[in-house]
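Bumping with the actual sequence this time:
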Amino acid sequence: MEQLNESQSTKSAPSVPAIPSVERRMFMRQLGLLSASTAALLASCTREMPDMVVGPKSGRSRMGATILPDGTIDLGSGDIGISNLAYTLDQLEVAFYATALEKGYGLNQQDRKIVAELHDHEIVHREFFKAFLGSNAIPMLEFDFSGVAFADRNSVFDAAQQFENVGVAAFNGTGPLIEDLEVLKIAGKMVSIEARHATLARYMLQPKSYFSLSHELIDPQGRDWALTPEEVVMKAQKFIKQKISVANLPKY
């Protein structure tokens, strides 16, 4: 698996408390309220964008997800396309954590509790974007995690760290391309959670390693690295069975 950041093997799991269940419930409730607060925005977006508008030359400034003749899934254009990119990554992360819980025989009880909490958070993110996008959303995707050694706890948390770091870099890279302020606010809320997830996964591999600000995590200007939509899909595509296209997403 391509390394976004290096990890070292540890002989035993670090001692770190999992996120309390009550906090998880509050997190889900707060995102539910956020979803309700954006209902008007969703209604206006869906009125502007007909279902499954086909082709980049439709003459419309915004376009929902499109399944092309060869089966490629085009994420769409504008803020809808950017939201579909986030939805793609959330689907991937939910599927990964679910597979880790099913096949992670090398995970101890504490490890499994951490993975379950990450899984629960990503379900909230996935379901939020599913509701947010409505009929403009991409379909549910299929994934291939055969490159991850789920029997090895370090392999699980290394993959988790990489997926979460891609999520952070994806939000950082697409933020300047978002037009609607409400969508940008949502992205800002999501990226902070993804960053916390990445830090937790890194901690499970290397306790206290988050005090080391690696050049792989921070750029020379002291900022998180950012990825373009093309770079994001390049890193995620090998785990996704369907081909994903970002051809109609905004450009810098």
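The tokens above came from a reply further down the thread. The first helix runs from residue 21 to 37.
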